[in-house]
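Example S7 (structure tokens).
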């Protein structure tokens, strides 16, 4: 693997959309790209235990937050260990890896310290994410604002075309500087 892009941000800020731009860019350059969600195991458990059909419109966010906390309380390094194992294995099978869904400072610090990663926060000044008050105040929605060591902060306050342009400029800067 020659690049590891990491996307952090609150719900519905455009993290996956931005990651998709990077994925498409590098694929058109003939590079092997793996897009990885750090929530893959959590979503799998929700799917298996509660028969969630993985439809984003019916995502049981409060349940995801609750189950994630329960797992971390019982097995503090569960998600970090699995992410590290997955990155180490998958890095031998790609040129570019993109990780989406990072929400917590320990995850960001881990990726910063363990891997040569490019940490990107996607922000949106007006969030229309339909989260409840309880969901908005969960650590998985607030912790990303406590981290101050991002390589890039992308403001997603326009349209998809503008976000696309910002991500392409980011890629060009990364390719030139890193």
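Recovered sequence:
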């Amino acid at each position: 693997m020659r690049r590891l892009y990491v996307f952090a941000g609150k719900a519905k800020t455009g993290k996956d959309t931005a990651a998709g731009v990077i994925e498409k860019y590098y694929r058109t350059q003939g590079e092997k790209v793996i897009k990885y969600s750090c929530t893959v195991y959590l979503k799998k458990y929700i799917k298996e235990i509660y028969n969630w059909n993985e439809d984003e419109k019916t995502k049981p966010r409060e349940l995801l937050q609750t189950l994630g906390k329960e797992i971390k309380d019982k097995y503090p390094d569960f998600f970090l260990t699995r992410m590290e194992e997955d990155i180490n294995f998958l890095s031998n099978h790609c040129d570019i890896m993109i990780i989406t869904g990072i929400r917590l400072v320990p995850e960001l610090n881990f990726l910063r310290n363990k891997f040569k990663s490019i940490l990107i926060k996607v922000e949106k000044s007006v969030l229309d994410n339909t989260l409840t008050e309880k969901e908005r105040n969960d650590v998985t929605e607030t912790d990303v604002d406590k981290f101050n060591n991002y390589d890039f902060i992308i403001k997603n306050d326009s349209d998809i075309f503008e976000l696309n342009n910002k991500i392409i400029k980011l890629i060009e800067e990364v390719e030139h500087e890193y």
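Notes on this example. The first strand starts at residue 3 and ends at 8.
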